[in-house]
Amino acid sequence: MLKEDKLVGRIAKAARSISGRRDRGALRLGIGDDAAILSPQGGKDWAISCDAFLEQIHFLADVHPADSVGYKSLVRAASDLVAMGAAPRYFLLTLALPESRTGSWLDAFLAGMRRAARYLRMQMIGGDTTKNPRVSIGVTVMGEISRGHAVTRTGARAGDLIYVTGRLGGAQLGLELLRRKIARARNLRGAWQAHLYPRIHVKLGEWLARNQVASAMMDISDGLSTDLSRLCSASRVGARIRAKEVPSVKIPKALRRPAHRLKSDELEMALHGGDDYGLLFTVDPRRRALLRRAPDAASLACIGEITSKRQILLVDDDGTRPLRNQGWDPFSTK
Amino acid sequence: MLKEDKLVGRIAKAARSISGRRDRGALRLGIGDDAAILSPQGGKDWAISCDAFLEQIHFLADVHPADSVGYKSLVRAASDLVAMGAAPRYFLLTLALPESRTGSWLDAFLAGMRRAARYLRMQMIGGDTTKNPRVSIGVTVMGEISRGHAVTRTGARAGDLIYVTGRLGGAQLGLELLRRKIARARNLRGAWQAHLYPRIHVKLGEWLARNQVASAMMDISDGLSTDLSRLCSASRVGARIRAKEVPSVKIPKALRRPAHRLKSDELEMALHGGDDYGLLFTVDPRRRALLRRAPDAASLACIGEITSKRQILLVDDDGTRPLRNQGWDPFSTK
Prior knowledge:
The structure is a homodimer. Helix content of chain A is about 30%, strand content about 25%. Chain A is α+β, with helices and mostly antiparallel strands.
């Protein structure tokens, strides 16, 4: 048997326990043939998306444990489904790795991916495995949603309220801590957990789509300033954000000492930090009251409103200024 | 606007012309949002598969022109759909590349991919773009097939006849020529075309599935000896192959000079050479006569039969010997 086939066998075996679902749902044929076969049910649409997660670009070999790499590679891909309001269902894994990572590193990677799959109730249905000098991960995800209910980025209208979930900038803070090797202290657990094992708002995304509460929605993966500008550009609108309302990560006191000096303050992390995977969505003010019944309602913050003038403004104590798009860009030369 | 967004814009623009289909089919929402949205039609199953195509592993920067890389990355992924009998429909492209390849290299890559998409009548519906020191391509493909008609690898039974399409080993010969820089001569065109721009048997695959003629099917991507052993293993059977019946590539006379000495002879190339993307399938002998009406019937060759004893034998003038699995393995240390 080829080494590749043995490796595929190990991954397929792990995938059987990766399944977060008991019922077969639409799945007719999973891993092991040329392609997986799905029998879609009537009245449902499918959302499909893919995401690359590459060593030295998206994660660092000496900073990120293998189980976090496995966990995050699935969660960040599924986040795009949640941002349409779809329920995550299936995924395919393209995994290229050096032979030195086919042992314990791969086991830990698959354990992290299994944890994410159980949490999201997703099932691995296929993939491709090959050798590469650096770890290179591609995840394709599929989710189900009632026909016609997907929430795009294009529906925001002037006057709509802008909402985000959770505290923004947590993942950025976690990364800075991990890079300084001061993260694993128990009292900083919250800070690095948000970076290594992000939680996403599956139930909220589904609820917002099902009840047609969100007029536009996306996830915040590259930072609020970047992703809000993408949403506004797709909807051909602008936005006014109130700095005071932006729910920023809290930098622990222990980290305010000069020895640990961080690159950014709390608001900067919240505005530009990537990797949070919270939801960013807009709501017609007449539907605002419905949000009280939303899952995770306590995690919601209204940070501003959509404007017809196509620019993004930040209002703080000093007045109003344009909010520059400073989120994460893989092609940036910074 | 971020550099990444500009690049995505360029790829999306190319994708609009990449579309090989005029009707929207099941597609509700394509490139530009968090995920693509499909509305599957009743009575159809979906086949889905993904494939990695990596610089220095699957293609060589100094040997393979960018348009061939674009062309092959889609065709080889679609080949897995054809091997189930499905009609290729949609694809998602994950593309990681160094900044130096975002200019003319990317244009040529997209032109090659466009050529493949038109030929296969496939449409790009999503993707992900990022930076990487080496080009790393992931393609996810989706195809449609009548419910329950997909042909797996598991249905071969003792006594079934074994068929392949086309001449085997052509892509391997082409690669050896390209590596020796003697390929581009006009009189060797056929030899390198098979390697750079393979054709696949879309109509035949669909026909074999629709008419339930094939009992098991897969594509030959890693070489006949490797892929036949995978099909037999999945079906829990063995096979007997007649060397004389294996349709081998013809090595041109000009290449028989000692200066050009090739690593393998014609039969070895046919048995172990990868990258051909022909179909390998089995047929109950009582259904054999139906094959006369198959598309591409002239390209079919019956090379042996399935046996109940789980070993793969090669019969030639010297007698009968086991056929060792010597196809391409990315983890091989050869």
